[in-house]
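User: Show me sequence and structure for the first protein, then do the same for the second.

Assistant: Starting with the first protein.
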Amino acid sequence: MRRSRLGLLLILLGVLAACGRAPLHHQEAFVFGTRVEVLIAGLPEAQARPAAAAVLREFDRLHRTYHAWKPSELSALNEALAAGRRQAVTPEMATLIADAQRLALASEQLFDPGIGRLVSLWGFQSDDLPAALPDAGALAAWRAARPGIADVQLDDHSAASRKRELALDFGGYLKGVALDRAAAILAAQGVHNALLNIGGNVLALGSKNGQPWRVGIQHPRQPGPLATIELDDGEAIGTSGDYQRYFEVDGRRYCHLLDPRSGQPVEHTQALSVLISPRAAAGALSDVASKPLFIAGRDWPRLARRLQVEHVLRIDAEGRVQVSAAMHRRLVYVGGQPKALEIVP
């Protein structure tokens, strides 16, 4: 078995080197099971430090409140759903569930935070990765029930479901929500130029002392970036990759990105990145959209149009690169344009 690589999906390029030229405050922590960073440009330390600290506190609060398998408000809800009980939820929880239901519907249920039981069966709800495949009978039973977030019956104060197999896991959604929360916190504290990074999910605010924030999109099979891209104010970028969290059995890779239709890990894609233009909840969409497009495989262009995502970069299982025309115009390929490159109109 091979352990997951928890390195960043996007590499921040040259940001710390700028410290000597202009103010650039940097704080980081380990939250959501990954490295998170807050970089603030152009402000004195006395203003930047408490603003960044407030962001990291909110990250930690979200992580603890919505942890899928350690004691939390979300795990308490999952216990109630498994027991067939209606459970009181906070207004924040109700909003997250309702937004996730809307996004799941838009993605044709390929993004579905209601597959927490499937994630657990595959062993990905753990700090340690499994060494063996899940029980075939348990997988078949889950497929027969096919629970999803659409099965949550929600009102203003409580949630319930007729399907006891339903369990929520916000792991493919919460980092993007956190990016949007961070942007609001920084704006309220007068911070307008910052880069927020949660394990490769990145949101850019303003600029880096007058220059665009530049990040690199990690190559899924080689060290370093496949390409770099400059981010405009309010743009967000997210990546899903089979190299983030996976295990191997008999030389075969099983990644944490599961197809809800089959109950199996996706094998046809190595990585997929999306760039989201400035809009409300751009951070959340950047986190969400990469998952269904990753799962969709070669059908991603149709689904991207449905999700109103114009900038997409996909690397398939053989290492071939597919890129939307809009994304291609934004990228600077490291080492030159890939030989196996398809530009999708």
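Switching to the second protein now.
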Amino acid sequence: MSRFVLRRLLGMVAVLLVLSVAVYAAFYLVPADPAQLACGPRCSPAQVAQVRDQLGLDAPVWAQYGHFVQGIFAGRDFGAGSASVHCDAPCLGISYKTGEQVTTMLWDRLPVTASLAFGAMVLWLLLGVASGLLSVLRRGRLTERALTALTLAGNATPVFVIGLLLLLLFCAYLQWLPFPSYVGLTQDPQQWFWGLLLPWVSLALIESAKYARLTRSSMLETLAEDHIRTFRAYGVAERRLVTRHALRGALTPVIALSALDLGTMFGSAVLTESLFGLPGLGKLLVSSVAIVDLPVVVGLVLVTGFCVVLANAVADLLYATADRRVVLS
């Protein structure tokens, strides 16, 4: 186990380094002048040159990337003399538009997106796995056909349509819930829950559809394996075969997909956060792209990549727990 964790950590570092090179090249080697973007359209050439010197953009590209990586692990200084600004590790740069450290901006918005992602994941796993399990138990009957139709409809419906309908129904028409607004979990747990309930349900209704189909297909495939047929020949009840044996074997692809969805949720929940007015990472990404705030965009891409790699590493550990046939290597 320790060797497996060490290999995964080394692989994670390698993947993030490759990702950082790709992201840095994509955003910092664009035709537009980053110094001009940071200074603004009305700056004089002298002011642009001063900003270029302060941000270290006058150095060679390889040196700029080295300073970028150094900032992540050890921090870095922007500028020189009395005008220098220190950025503590992990430093992802300074926003062109606000002058804030990118790490601070991301850290302030991370709890919002984390609350949204983890809460929605719990709901979509419960709904998806339960629906897939019920489809297998009731296969060939009306219940299976109804659940199949619902999952197809869920896959075809955009999240903003579901979210808008929920807002109109529960907030405007029935007035059972207040309009969503984020309150920190430590500040008021009850308000935190009610403020995120509709965003959770909106994401869960969409995502659970593919988990229901995946669970159903994986369980049917597992039920066709030799050891299941052996259990059936010995007279083991069908319900016990489905819930005790087939479900455990079918959870491996569900874990893999949920890890990928959870990681990407940290940078892709743009529509949900914008619709419900949640100040998370997705909404920050939209605003940063709109104003070409390159350091913030780069930081968001790296954080999303880190979340995806970390979630997949945790998923590998969960494989062995869900299915004893899986051996960590």
